[in-house]
């Protein structure tokens, strides 16, 4: 085989590798485009995530025209980017393998997910928590006016250590909202190896739950 042929063959295989990588990237992580109140049909249309394949359908009553089949819940178990696609208060989360959507009257009623695809050590989990909090702040989410409810304040080493100590006993969360539209719980918890005597072995998980704002604000 001549040098020129070998060179073209190498370029051909390199091109195949690049194309394959792009295809893998496109299909290995899907996007679920959703917000509270969005019709199921639009969730299907706007998402690369296989919504119909991952949705449990309530069968309804075949003898009752007022009780037709309808979507009950959509479940996430493969790498998925959640795109909360409200034009004013929307946000995207890092890929996750945890999540569920419930529906009422064929519209999104609740979203439960995580900005993580696996549990993480405290420092990494806290960095992810701060990033999500900053994103929500920038998109106009506000702290709901409840007792002992405020943004996570973890700027200093002492503040971070106080939060870590608290997480060995309980989950810690804050309630956010967009008045008249949405409510959101941002919560961090120690999920595995939660032994105070071996704190560096502990693993943490962040939960996000979104629903309709019912504060009356």
Walk me through this protein's architecture:
- It is built from 4 helices and 11 strands.
- By secondary structure, the protein is α+β, with helices and mostly antiparallel strands.
- The chain folds into 2 domains: 30-113, no CATH class; 114-217, no CATH class.
- The strands form 2 sheets. Strands 2-3-6-7-11-10-9-8 form an 8-stranded antiparallel β-sheet. Strands 1-4-5 form a 3-stranded mixed β-sheet.
- β9 (172-178) and β10 (182-192) form a beta hairpin.
- The longest helix is centred in the N-terminal third of the chain and has 26 residues, at 3-28.
- Mean pLDDT is 89; it is low at 3-7 and 9-26.
Mean pLDDT: 89
User: What's the number of structural domains?
Assistant: 2
Radius of gyration: 22 Å
Ends distance: 76 Å
Instruction: Describe the largest sheet.
Output: 8 strands, antiparallel
What is the number of strand segments?
11
* Beta-strand proportion: 25-35%
Elements, N to C (H/E) = HEHEEEEEEHEHEEE
Q: Residue ranges: pLDDT <50 for 5 or more in a row?
A: 3-7, 9-26
> What strand order characterises the main sheet?
2-3-6-7-11-10-9-8
| Helix vs. strand class | alpha+beta
Helix fraction?
Answer: 25-40%
Total helices: the number is 4
Shape annotation: globular
């Amino acid at each position: 085989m001549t040098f020129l042929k070998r060179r073209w063959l190498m370029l051909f295989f390199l091109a195949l590798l690049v194309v394959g990588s792009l295809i893998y990237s496109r299909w290995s992580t899907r996007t679920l485009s959703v917000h509270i109140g969005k019709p199921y049909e639009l969730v299907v249309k706007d998402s690369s995530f296989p919504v119909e394949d991952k949705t449990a359908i309530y069968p309804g009553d075949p003898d009752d025209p007022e009780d037709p089949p309808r979507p009950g819940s959509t479940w996430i178990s493969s790498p998925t980017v959640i795109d909360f696609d409200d034009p004013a208060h929307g946000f995207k989360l890092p890929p996750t393998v945890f999540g569920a959507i419930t529906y009422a009257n064929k519209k999104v009623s609740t979203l439960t997910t995580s900005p993580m695809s696996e549990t993480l050590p405290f420092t990494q989990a806290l960095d992810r928590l701060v990033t999500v909090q900053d994103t929500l702040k920038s998109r106009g989410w506000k702290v709901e006016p409840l007792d002992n409810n405020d943004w996570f304040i973890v700027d200093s080493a002492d503040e971070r250590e106080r939060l870590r100590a608290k997480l060995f006993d309980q989950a810690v969360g804050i309630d956010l909202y967009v008045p008249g539209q949405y409510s959101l719980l941002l919560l961090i918890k120690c999920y595995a190896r939660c032994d105070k005597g071996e704190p560096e072995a502990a693993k943490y998980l962040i939960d996000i739950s979104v629903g309709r704002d019912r504060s009356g604000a």
